[in-house]
Hints:
Blueprint: H1 3-16, H2 29-36, H3 40-53, E1 56-59, E2 63-66, H4 89-98, H5 118-130, H6 133-137, H7 146-159, E3 168-171, H8 174-185, E4 191-196, H9 200-208, E5 212-219, E6 222-223, H10 225-235, E7 239-242, H11 256-269, E8 272-276, H12 290-294, E9 299-304, E10 316-319, H13 322-336, H14 342-353, H15 355-379, E11 385-386, E12 395-399, H16 406-414, E13 421-422, E14 435-439, H17 448-464
Parallel strand pairs: 4-5, 4-7, 7-8, 8-9
Antiparallel strand pairs: 1-2, 3-10, 5-6, 9-10, 11-12, 12-14, 13-14
Helix pairs in contact: 1-3, 2-3, 5-14, 7-14, 8-9, 8-13, 10-11, 16-17
Amino acid sequence: xxxxxxxxxxxxxxxxxxxxxxxxxxxxxxxxxxxxxxxxxxxxxxxxxxxxxxxxxxxxxxxxxxxxxxxxxxxxxxxxxxxxxxxxxxxxxxxxxxxxxxxxxxxxxxxxxxxxxxxxxxxxxxxxxxxxxxxxxxxxxxxxxxxxxxxxxxxxxxxxxxxxxxxxxxxxxxxxxxxxxxxxxxxxxxxxxxxxxxxxxxxxxxxxxxxxxxxxxxxxxxxxxxxxxxxxxxxxxxxxxxxxxxxxxxxxxxxxxxxxxxxxxxxxxxxxxxxxxxxxxxxxxxxxxxxxxxxxxxxxxxxxxxxxxxxxxxxxxxxxxxxxxxxxxxxxxxxxxxxxxxxxxxxxxxxxxxxxxxxxxxxxxxxxxxxxxxxxxxxxxxxxxxxxxxxxxxxxxxxxxxxxxxxxxxxxxxxxxxxxxxxxxxxxxxxxxxxxxxxxxxxxxxxxxxxxxxxxxxxxxxxxxxxxxxxxxxxxx
Length: 477
């Protein structure tokens, strides 16, 4: 495949997944050339050929636009040509969730079961089994268990957020929390700004809502601020969805300066921010939080407990202004008839309030620090290096050597029962082909590295034998 064809496929994929809608103007030739790592003449040829196909139309002196021809109904699994299916967010999720226990999962997004506080959960289950029958059999209240909301309120107060329990509602998961916010604040065709790269299920959920996504390059200290401000001015988005702490997938952390500029730009353009704080407890020393600086005025905080306690206990939360919470409660009643399971919420509240949770997190941070250094050391001889060294957490966002395509590597590895997370699953612009996200907690099995090395060698050999090289990967920031 030539570079021109690769650019064409990237544009087609953006049209197919609705990140480019009919009537939208494409990036300028020079800007898209920088994004894709090709020459401007390559982009000109690709755009011209897409005009000939009827995908784009050219306006003299204005640029290139997506045609207004009717598009087929959105298919969630559709993402351009079949060859791109291996970098689709749904592919990564399905492989992670459905693969048997024999498959090694350095590309998944959770900790191994034996790293979790299972004894504390067993103790909590025994206590619930002896308690009131209503917890075991009744619906959840519309805002969720008051006990857990009080625990969360105490944590917010310690951060400096002034709030009340009626500004917090519990949800069935962190994903459901974002879904409810999207249902409340967005309509099909609205624009949302996301980081590029970002957590791949943000994209999957927004596609399900038929939302137009605009990616802003992410840097080691937060979003590229100039690009962020231009996106707000040019695209008029309704929301910005992000991780501030231990960003997924990069592991980077928002700086104080970036946090203040993001909030200033949001205020100037009437933008609402959804801050996913799911990795908060992995930080030994808290980094800046948009919700703390904003006071839950323009920022909606969401989170869950699947990363630190148990993914089996489906429980998330939303913290926001009272007006938004009231409307979100009604939406949750309409879609779920009440809050999350009382069994889950009472169990989570009990573990969080107990002394064992703090000890669990202290031990987990130490264990992850060792696993992170071990993974970095073992990846280095393969020519794989982190884009940034995270201060905490369990993700490493790593660049492959020699422009190798992470989707090709992932496809080869999964054939040998090693699941990876290729970069373009996280990139709305499909410009992170030379990156992989690694979960350091899932890399202790010695089989991971030989399989990865063999896949890289096979891919490199294919390139030397005349297979066209993939486009250079996106370099955030």
